[in-house]
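testing teh design pipeline on a random one, pls ignore if ur not involved
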């Protein structure tokens, strides 16, 4: 299946755990928490329930196969997820007992994005390049597969992770001096680190689930 939602540090955490790296434990920072995700083949999984209008289904072993973050300076910042599940079962949909607790997340719009370019190996996010970023499309791919085994049953055994990949397309205005330097770096095969930071208009670490 697939889903999308506006980028939010609160709402992306579960999806990062099943799509980027599992078993991540946040560390206290100020009055909030910092979550750091490094791409890994070790992913958590989720169990999801959905009603398709005719029947209710439960899917177990769900992981994110592909995550896209796309936005523009004068538009929204949207996260799109392609999901892989281990199995799907028809269920009787029972109403939830009691009242579910709701949370009010902070959604980050496109203009709340900062761009940094630094020397490879230096601390990412040191050198800000303000006032030039127009739009971006970042795709993280786990390239999940489907493995079946035979023992008098036709069932999926696992969803092995393939070669992890990242693709990014950014549009930003060229600054003459910076452009000349970056073209020279390209020609001389000098590696650079590009970082996008989302949500800097909000106070990082101000809430229990805030991350960036």
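output:
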């Amino acid at each position: 299946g697939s889903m999308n939602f506006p980028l939010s540090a609160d709402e992306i955490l579960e999806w990062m755990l099943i799509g980027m790296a599992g078993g991540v434990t946040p560390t206290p920072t100020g009055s909030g928490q910092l979550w750091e995700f490094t791409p890994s083949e070790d992913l958590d999984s989720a169990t999801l329930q959905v009603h398709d209008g005719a029947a209710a289904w439960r899917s177990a072993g769900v992981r994110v196969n592909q995550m896209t973050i796309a936005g523009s300076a004068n538009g929204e910042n949207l996260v799109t997820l392609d999901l892989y599940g281990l199995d799907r079962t028809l269920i009787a949909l029972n109403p939830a007992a009691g009242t579910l607790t709701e949370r009010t997340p902070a959604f980050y719009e496109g203009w709340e994005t900062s761009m940094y370019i630094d020397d490879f190996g230096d601390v990412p996010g040191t050198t800000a390049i303000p006032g030039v970023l127009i739009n971006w499309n970042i795709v993280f791919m786990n390239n999940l597969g489907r493995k079946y085994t035979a023992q008098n049953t036709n069932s999926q055994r696992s969803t092995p992770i393939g070669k992890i990949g990242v693709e990014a397309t950014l549009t930003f205005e060229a600054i003459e001096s910076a452009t000349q330097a970056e073209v020279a770096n390209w020609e001389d095969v000098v590696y650079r680190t590009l970082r996008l930071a989302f949500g800097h208009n909000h106070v990082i670490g101000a809430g229990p689930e805030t991350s960036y």
